[in-house]
Specification:
By secondary structure, the protein is of the alpha/beta class. It has helices spanning 12-35, 49-57, 109-120, and strands spanning 5-10, 39-45, 68-71, 84-85, 97-105, 125-134, 146-151, 156-157, 173-176. It contains three helices and nine strands; from the N terminus they run βαβαβββαββββ. It has a six-stranded mixed sheet with strand order 4-3-2-5-6-7, with helices on both faces.
Length: 179
């Protein structure tokens, strides 16, 4: 293990099992919407890339994937700062049900911003799925229907989550050693 990492928090097998369970819940809730051509999956870049790739492979439904970029952790910082939209929202989503997929819910700023922006452009409904939810006090408390794992207030990397652009490629979720 890299010396900058303290320990594995969630291993790849547990992640794979939970992603399958999340997909089953999403299928139950959103299959009729998808079958009607009204579902759009909106992953939050870049942290959710691996998660959304695995998740959608479990969803045999018709839907487009339209990513959105948000920045909240610039550089080597380990605390979420204010969320900033990195470009426009995807086109063609007004009147649709959006499944917003993100890697982690911590401060709540990113999801709160996106949920509000999506409502402002006239989406019919926003459902939110996160891989991880930190056990912290949130600056904003967005609605989140699908949650993979609750985790303690530690800085985690792997399975798409990074620290200064590093460690996204780890198959497990690990804790960064305190600096």
């Amino acid at each position: 293990m890299d010396p900058r990492l303290e320990r594995t928090l969630i291993d790849r097998d547990d992640i794979a099992d939970r992603v399958g369970q999340l997909a089953e819940a999403i299928m139950t809730d959103l299959a009729p919407v998808a079958d009607a051509g009204q579902l759009v999956v909106v992953p939050v870049l870049t942290g959710s890339l691996l998660f959304v790739a695995d998740l959608v492979r479990h969803l045999p439904l018709p839907f487009p994937i339209r990513p959105v970029g948000v920045s909240a952790y610039p550089g080597k910082t380990t605390r979420s700062e204010s969320a900033v939209l990195q470009g426009p929202l995807p086109e063609g989503i007004a009147g649709k049900t959006v499944l917003l997929v993100d890697d982690i819910l911590d401060s709540g700023r990113t999801l709160h911003l996106l949920q509000q922006e999506l409502r402002d452009v006239g989406v019919a409904d926003v459902r939110t799925c996160v891989l991880l939810r930190k056990e912290v006090h949130r600056a904003a408390d967005p609605t989140c229907e699908y949650i993979g794992f609750d985790v303690p207030d530690v800085f985690v990397v792997g399975y798409g989550l990074d620290w200064d652009g590093l460690f996204r490629n780890l198959p497990d979720i690990a804790v960064i050693r305190p600096q």
